[in-house]
Specification:
The protein has one domain: UDP-N-acetylmuramoyl-L-alanine:D-glutamate ligase (3-Layer(aba) Sandwich). It is about 30% helix and about 25% strand. It is globular and about 50 Å long. Strands 5-4-1-8-9-10-11-12-13 form a 9-stranded mixed sheet, sandwiched between helices. A 4-stranded mixed sheet has the order 3-2-6-7. The chain contains 9 helices and 13 strands.
Length: about 300
């Protein structure tokens, strides 16, 4: 069963700061913040939430259908996805803009500071949701603001259950708008920080949110695993120890790809999340969001 992946396609410029942000940013001086980080390493990777999720989902044996926008410089990215066997029929090319760009600085504690230029992503709302009977599952990952809102309405109207994954776009929406996403979604997936912000903006608790007709609320907790909320009850799903901790970029996307893979196959949500923890631990041992190697046989899939 194909999974529709609505989200960003971007190029990531990834750098590393050999120190801790907390030692450079003075809490009582943020009103006059002026800091510079020496980043001795720099590399450019293919990224964006939709691209990262599609990469891992396809590697697991899933069937991603990407619904996203690329700019004039996106030809190589499009060919890359097609090389994986990904359905790119819903990818828009806007020749008047660049593909979205993320510039990421990671410190020694794996904290990250990101600057993001949306570029062609701002035109993603121009892509029409097709009338395809084979699309029975979707995820709304971070994308253009208008595109995310439109996708939620369209998917809900079409009766296609979707995962709401607001990610770094969460601050773009107010409480009423976020409640609208939640009311239309089948699942909500956030990290711990995003979960707190989502609760603060909506006035809901995770417990009450999980009782609003959602099939589950998933809150990832990095190496600690994740909390799975179903109908007001919370279960902590333990994390999986990584062989190495190299780069957290794309770990959340890898987790969500595993979640989609399990949902594609009708697994219980707990089993989907357990696979997500395993895949997240595997990804963090590799640099970039699309360089980890997955062996479905070794994973017992």
């Amino acid at each position: 069963m194909p999974a529709l992946i609505c989200g960003s396609l971007a190029f990531d410029t990834i750098t590393n700061f050999n120190g801790r942000f907390a030692q450079q940013i003075l809490a009582d001086q943020v009103h006059i913040l002026n800091v510079s980080f020496l980043v001795p390493t720099l590399r450019r990777e293919f990224g964006g939430c939709a691209g990262n999720i599609a990469y891992t989902l396809r590697a697991l044996g899933g069937e991603p259908v990407v619904m996203a926008a690329l700019g004039s410089d996106g030809g190589e990215y499009l060919a890359r996805m097609q090389g994986w066997g990904v359905d790119t029929s819903l990818v828009l090319r806007d020749e008047s803009q660049y593909t979205a760009q993320a510039i990421i600085i990671t410190d020694t504690d794996n904290n990250q500071i990101t600057a993001f230029h949306p570029g062609a992503m701002q035109e993603a709302h121009r892509i029409e949701l097709p009338a395809r009977a084979d699309l029975k599952l979707a995820i709304i990952a971070p994308d253009g603001r208008e595109a995310m809102s439109r996708r939620a309405r369209q998917l809900h109207a079409a009766g296609i259950p979707f995962v709401f994954d607001p990610g770094q776009q969460l601050p773009m929406f107010d409480g009423m708008e976020l409640r609208g996403f939640i009311e239309r979604a089948a699942w909500v997936a956030v990290n711990d920080y995003e979960g707190r912000m989502l609760c603060d903006r909506t006035g809901l608790t995770l417990q009450s949110m999980s009782r609003l007709g959602l099939r589950g609320v998933i809150v990832t907790l990095a190496h600690e695993g994740c909390d799975l909320w179903i109908d007001g009850q919370c279960e902590r799903i333990p994390g999986v120890a990584a062989e190495r901790v190299v780069d957290p970029t794309g770990c959340g996307d890898a987790f969500r790809a595993a979640l989609l893979f399990g949902l594609e196959h009708g697994w219980p949500l707990r089993r989907c999340v357990e696979l997500g923890n395993r895949i997240g631990a595997l990804k963090i041992a590799c640099r970039g969001g699309q360089n980890h190697v997955i062996d479905p046989v070794a994973l017992g899939l």
